[in-house]
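ugh ok fine here u go
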Amino acid sequence: MPTLSHYTLRQLNLMVRDAIAMQLPDEYWVEAELSECRERGGHCYMELVEKDDRSNTPIARASAKCWRQTWQMVQPYFERTTGQPLHAGLKVLLKVYAQFHEAYGFSWIVTDIDPTYTLGDMARRRQEIIRQLKEEGVFDLQRELRLPLFAQRIAVISASNAAGYGDFCRQLEDNGYGFHFTIQLFPAIMQGEQVESSIINALNQIYNDISHYDVVCILRGGGATADLSGFDTLALAENVAQFPLPVITGIGHDRDESILDMISHTRVKTPTAAATLLVDNLLRVLDRIERAQTFVSHFVSDSIHRHQQRISQLATLIPTLALRTVSDGRHRIEMLQPRPRLAIERLLTEQKHRLERMALQLQGFDPQILLARGYSITLKDGRAVRDPAQVKPGDEIETRIEKGTFKSIVK
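structure:
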């Protein structure tokens, strides 16, 4: 039996290496999706995949590596341009060359990454999510809600150790107007691949106790400026858009609005700005209350003044009315002389009662009569005091009685 020729594994792998080097000597731009991306020892290790457009089933896979010297240049540029780091699920355009190592096998070696390709894919995905939200009729649901006048019970979704959350709390506590807020934190992961599930879980917790809160604030201040893709997902947008309380976002980044910003009730740039918005809301309510108080006070004062004028006019008319009534009575008596004496007396009695009723009615409009009965009127700053809450210890008040006025200090 003839002896077959054979090779060691290393010899065969060296042949493969040489063949690949001869057949694929150049660099190539390749489109792929990252199914895995991890950094170790300053190098970046990637798993690339291509999926069927119709079934989303992988039809090609390969490993890729970006060595430390290249990675240190392409990584910061990619993150600055796209606003997020490389992570699983991103579509990328890589410049690669083929390498087969006899000990480690085949891999594509990355020499460059084009961030504009990823930006284009991200934009396409964002537009698709926005289109779907609008088709579902939920894109503008949050803006149809009204921020409560007294929005003081705040549910906050944020990382517990985030500097932005601390800034938010301090801004509310030191608001300068004495407004009181209650803040309940629902800790969540605010960057990375778990953003979506973490925030949705926090929203579910708030919903289970929803009657205890007026508004929800989603805050992300003080963290890394990159990795904001978690705020651009369909599931998160649907949950926030359909949440029954107003949702304020203060994610704290300078790039274009995230989808979460777009569908929220109000988007502000930073957590501090979110706190300022809530303080300003209460300040507007306080202004409305004070203006209403002024209006009511002026309305009551004007009403009292008009009634006093009416009383004065009636008081002036009493003598004339009395004389006229007496004259009319005499005239009627003269006309009724031929009638029986009883009819005349009854008429006089009726007229007397009528005059007495008119006199009693007029007395009811005279404040001085109330004072003469032992009542008094207490004033502060020229306005009647109707509620003890209107005064505080140390205030000077004026008391009007029948025969004058005196002043007191509240203890």
